[in-house]
Every structure is written in structure tokens, then in C-alpha cells.
UniProtKB/TrEMBL annotation, chain A:
Belongs to the binding-protein-dependent transport system permease family. This is Sugar ABC transporter permease. Keywords: Membrane, Transmembrane, Transmembrane helix, Transport. GO terms for cellular component: plasma membrane. GO terms for biological process: transmembrane transport. Signal peptide: none annotated. It comes from Thermococcus paralvinellae. InterPro entries: MetI-like (IPR000515), MetI-like_sf (IPR035906), Sugar_ABC_transporter (IPR052730). PROSITE patterns: ABC_TM1. It is a multi-pass membrane protein. The chain crosses the membrane at residues 7-29, 62-84, 96-117, 150-173, 211-229, 250-272.
Automatic annotation (TrEMBL), chain B:
InterPro entries: BP-dep_ABC_trans_perm, MetI-like, MetI-like_sf. This is Sugar transport membrane protein. GO terms for biological process: transmembrane transport. Belongs to the binding-protein-dependent transport system permease family. It comes from the Archaea. Residues 72-264 form the ABC transmembrane type-1 domain. SUPFAM superfamilies: MetI-like (SSF161098). The keyword Cell membrane applies.
């Protein structure tokens, strides 16, 4: 039996809810104020200053570009990993723990860890030099190697954040009732048919939430890029950080923040709409 | 090829795949640890993939000369403050969601889930203005208050699921025998929920320990470890710090996280399951 409704639960929730509302609401209003006013009056001067800077468009381009490369790869990789790890095998627990270690490692540390792997005197360069795969070290860092920096960020992000997607999809897999699969087997379905017709459709909600979470976090990527590439690869959070801490232009920094917020809202809404439509289609 | 060899080959392929993936995760961790203690000569020697000579010099310089030890202290203070504030606010809310039925409960729960997605830079950048006005800028309390805003949705969701796992009958029985609701909560539910809450506290600790954007924006002198590391190391191209300091920094930063995996491994998957759903 549960206690019937009274004012007590609201009283218990109120402090936490008010706290969150303040820390979400205040910054949004303050950001709008900083972005759209000058000397207390409405003005688009700050907006013009931001969008006339090519770095703003570069940051937008690279933030979306990184997400477009990283997120789908992560989801594909995590799906394969989850399907493999959903079986019972010897040493499964140990493998599982190893796979989720990156969840606890910060983006700054992950950037530095991959710097150890990819630097000119790093592990991979020395390994490939010694087994004769390459004659000279491959350079990943520095402005003239920007494409390689992009690759380094992708590698580090795949290493760090695939685990989040993996855990979500694995949880989804474990919720699928074995009866569906047994029924399919009775009718003679092989592994791939079961995967395509049963497992993937039932995994849609998990894949959807993984996509939303990863894409939203990709819009605010910061530490890993800042460590591996600095401003060679401009990104929204990094440029906002730079404007705030170096230039002290709070208005422009706020516009970067608002751009991240706007992207997050649009992407979240798009995913929910798009994925729902497809989900219903499968059900028909 | 008969069925048996086919099965064998499948097994081998399977284990090779699992091994590769595990190696992909674990090898960088081992490499960075070895490099953090590698002598300079061994690191720059192209023929030595794994260093043979080791030194504690880089970790020591980082801790004492480059003030990482102070930053570690700051990080611990911020994380502990974050745990205290977010649990003080989050436990009542989590308890209410777990044990009561009330109108608008789903809406409230859903908005807390949504708030978890609120981008950190969007919170941090405008907050600077308020913090300057309130003299909270460059204070550890200021960082902890912002980290609480980041951690609170997780704390509410995790604690509500922990409390939901503690049987309501026990609490009711205690109330039949004369305890108040608060007494029953403190004497029955809370002790039973303690292991889960300890794991949740570790989760909050790691979240705060790892957070870099808020900490970098809101502090200048009193930096937490990631903020301090970022300001020393930022931009590999700028290359302010020699490489081996970077590895020492990575090693120091990942230690508590690894300990967390070890101590909380029983709760780990469930907890992430809750926070990610």
C-alpha cells in the first residue's frame, strides 16, 4: 500500500526542483540578456559580431562534423559489442568490467591517454616503426596536421564514450523476452533473420535514447578537443570558453552557449519525432 | 569442414574479437601508466616501445611544483561539497518519487530526466556574471553549487530507484510499532539503502572529479584538478608541457576512477542503467 496523495511529496521534491529550475532558468535568461542587449537596450550588435567571425561558422561546422562521424560509429560499434557480450562465455564478467572502465575516465584524461598512444614518440608510432610498418613517425598533432588531429579526436572519443552507448544497448537487449526469439526459431528463422526482424526493431527505443544522449553530449564536446587540438579544431564549447576566459566578451560567449542550447533542442526534438515515426511503421 | 571444426573456428573468432576489444580499452591505460613513470631517454628512444628505466620525477614535479596536489585537495573539497548538497536536496526528492503516488508525478520525473541533458557550457558561461556579483567567483563553494546542479538529476533518479528497492512493508511495520514516518525512514529505510547510497556518492564524486568546463570557467586561483591540468597542458600543438608531464597528469586523474570501478563494480551496471534510461 502506498500513502495517499498529500502535500508531503511536493514538499520533499520542491527544494531539488527549485534548485534545478534556478540553475537552468537563470543562465538561460542571463545568456539571452547578454546576447541581445547593449547598454540596457535591445541590440543585435553582439550577434553581428559573432556571425561575422568565420571561426563561429568553423566551430559550428566542426562540432556537427565531429558528431556526424563519431556518433553513428559509436552506435554501430556498441551494437556489435552488445550483441557479442549478451552471450554467456568464460571471462565475461572481466571483459565487461574492462569495457566500462572508460565511463569513469574524464575527457581531459582520455585526451592525454590518447596523446600517449599517438604522439610522435608515442606507443603506436614506436610499435609500427619497430615492426616495420612505417619508416617515419606519423604526425597527429600541430596545426599543419589538422586532419590527423580530427582523426585523433575521433579515436579518443570512440575509446571514451562508446561504453555509454554499449551499456544502454546491452540493457535494452537484456529486456527482450527470449520467448520471441524461441518462437522465431520454431518457424525456422536463422540468426540474421532474428536479428533483423526481432532484435533490432525491439532495440529501437534503446538505440534512440543512446543516439539522443550521445548527440547532445557531442554538441558540448570540450576537454578532449582542447587537449588534443586546442583551437586548431574550433568547436562551439571551446570557442565560447576562449571568448569568455581570454577575450572576456561575455556577449559572444553567451551566443556560443545559446547555439549549443538551440542545437540540443532541435536535435532532441528531431530524434524523438523521426524515431517514433519509424517505430510505428515497424509495428504495423 | 565438419560441424566440430566449424564450431571451433567460430569460438576462436569470437574470443579473438572479445580479446581485441578488451585490449583496445586496456592497452592505452597500461601505456599511459608506464609512460607516466618512464625516464626521458626511454620515452624519446624510438626503439623502446615499452620503457625500461623508471622515475617518479614527473609525478612529483606535477604534484608539488605545478601545484597538482593543491588542485587535488580542491577537487576533493568540491566533490565532497557536491555530494553533501546534492544528497541533502536529492534524497528527499528521490524518496518522494519512490514511495508516494501523487498528481503530476510523471511530469516532474520526466522534467528531471530532461534536465540531466542540459548542456554544461550553457549553464557555466552566464553563471560567471552572477558569481562575480555574488563574490562566488573563484571559490570552491561556487564550483560545488554548479556541480550540484549537474549531479542533482542523477542523484534524484538513482536514490529513487534505491529507495524503491527497499520494501515499503518494513517501513510500515516500523510505523505500526510507533515510529514516526521520519523515524521509520532514519532507522529502517536509510540503513537498508546505505550500500546503494554509498555507490551513488562515489558516482557523484567521479562526476565532479572529472568535470572540467564549469571548473575552468568559474575559477582562476582555486582550480580543481582537471581545470589545473587543462590550463597547464591545453593544446598539444601549443605544447606548453613536455609529453611525460601529460602522461603523469593522465595517470593522476584516472586513479580515483579506477578505484571506483573496483569498489562499486557490483552496482556499476545497474546504476548506469538507471541514469541512462
Amino acid at each position: 500500500m502506498k500513502v495517499k496523495a498529500s502535500y508531503l511529496p511536493y514538499l520533499l521534491i520542491l527544494p531539488a526542483f527549485a534548485y534545478l529550475m534556478f540553475f537552468v532558468g537563470y543562465p538561460l535568461i542571463q545568456a539571452l540578456y547578454l546576447a541581445f542587449t547593449e547598454n540596457g537596450a535591445f541590440s543585435l550588435a553582439t550577434v553581428n559580431r559573432t556571425i561575422s567571425d568565420p571561426r563561429f561558422w568553423d566551430a559550428l561546422k566542426y562540432t556537427i562534423g565531429l558528431a556526424a562521424v563519431i556518433v553513428p560509429t559509436q552506435v554501430g560499434l556498441a551494437l556489435v559489442l552488445a550483441l557479442v557480450m549478451n552471450r554467456a562465455f568464460k571471462g565475461k564478467d572481466l571483459a565487461l568490467y574492462a569495457l566500462i572502465i572508460p565511463l569513469t575516465i574524464s575527457d581531459v584524461a582520455a585526451g592525454l591517454i590518447w596523446y600517449a598512444m599517438l604522439s610522435p614518440s608515442g606507443f603506436l608510432n614506436k610499435l609500427f616503426l619497430n615492426i616495420g610498418l612505417i619508416d617515419n613517425p606519423v604526425y597527429f598533432f600541430g596545426y599543419q596536421f589538422r586532419h590527423m588531429e580530427f582523426l585523433a579526436i575521433v579515436l579518443a572519443e570512440l575509446w571514451r564514450a562508446t561504453a555509454i552507448v554499449f551499456v544502454i544497448i546491452l540493457a535494452g537487449l537484456q529486456m527482450i523476452s527470449p520467448e520471441y526469439l524461441e518462437a522465431a526459431e520454431v518457424f525456422g528463422a536463422d540468426y540474421w533473420t532474428k536479428l533483423r526482424k526481432i532484435v533490432i526493431p525491439l532495440l529501437k527505443p534503446s538505440i534512440q535514447s543512446a543516439l539522443i544522449i550521445r548527440t547532445l553530449f557531442a554538441m558540448q564536446v570540450f576537454g578532449i578537443v582542447w587537449i588534443l587540438a586546442g583551437r586548431d579544431i574550433p568547436i562551439l564549447a571551446g570557442e565560447g570558453f576562449y571568448q569568455l576566459t581570454e577575450i572576456k566578451d561575455y556577449g559572444v560567449a553567451s551566443i556560443y552557449a545559446l547555439t549549443i542550447a538551440a542545437l540540443s533542442i532541435v536535435l532532441g526534438a528531431m530524434y524523438i519525432k523521426f524515431m517514433k515515426a519509424e517505430y510505428l511503421e515497424v509495428k504495423e | 569442414m565438419n560441424e566440430k571444426t566449424k564450431f571451433m573456428l567460430k569460438q576462436i573468432a569470437f574470443y579473438t574479437f572479445v580479446f581485441t576489444v578488451v585490449a583496445w580499452i586496456v592497452v592505452p591505460l597500461i601505456v599511459v601508466t608506464l609512460y607516466a613513470f618512464s625516464s626521458k631517454l626511454d620515452y624519446y628512444d624510438p626503439s623502446k616501445i615499452i620503457p625500461f628505466h623508471y622515475t617518479k620525477q614527473w609525478v612529483y614535479t606535477l604534484l608539488f611544483t605545478l601545484r597538482a596536489l593543491d588542485a587535488i585537495k580542491n577537487s576533493i573539497i568540491v566533490a565532497v561539497l557536491t555530494i553533501i548538497i546534492s544528497f541533502a536536496l536529492g534524497i528527499p526528492a528521490g524518496y518522494a518519487i519512490a514511495k508516494f503516488i501523487f498528481p503530476a508525478k510523471d511530469t516532474i520525473k520526466l522534467s528531471i530526466v530532461a534536465l540531466r541533458m542540459f548542456p554544461i557550457p550553457v549553464m557555466a558561461i552566464p553563471l560567471v556574471v552572477l558569481y562575480i556579483r555574488l563574490n562566488l567567483i573563484d571559490t570552491l563553494l561556487g564550483v560545488a553549487l554548479a556541480h550540484t546542479a549537474m549531479a542533482l538529476p542523477f542523484v534524484v533518479l538513482i536514490t529513487s530507484s534505491i529507495f524503491a528497492g527497499v520494501s515499503t512493508e518494513l517501513e510500515e511495520a516500523a510505523m505500526v510499532f510507533g515510529l514516526t514516518r521520519l523515524g521509520a525512514f532514519l532507522r529502517i529505510t536509510l540503513p537498508l539503502a546505505l550500500p546503494g547510497l554509498a555507490a551513488a556518492a562515489m558516482f557523484t564524486f567521479v562526476m565532479s572529479w572529472n568535470e572540467v568546463f564549469v571548473a575552468s570557467v568559474l575559477t582562476l586561483q582555486h582550480r580543481t584538478l582537471p581545470a589545473q591540468i587543462l590550463s597547464i597542458m591545453a593544446g598539444a600543438s601549443g605544447g606548453a608541457a613536455p609529453d611525460y608531464y601529460k602522461f603523469a597528469a593522465a595517470f593522476i586523474m584516472m586513479l580515483p576512477a579506477m578505484l571506483f570501478v573496483f569498489f562499486a563494480r557490483k552496482y556499476l551496471i545497474t546504476m548506469w542503467g538507471i541514469t541512462l534510461k
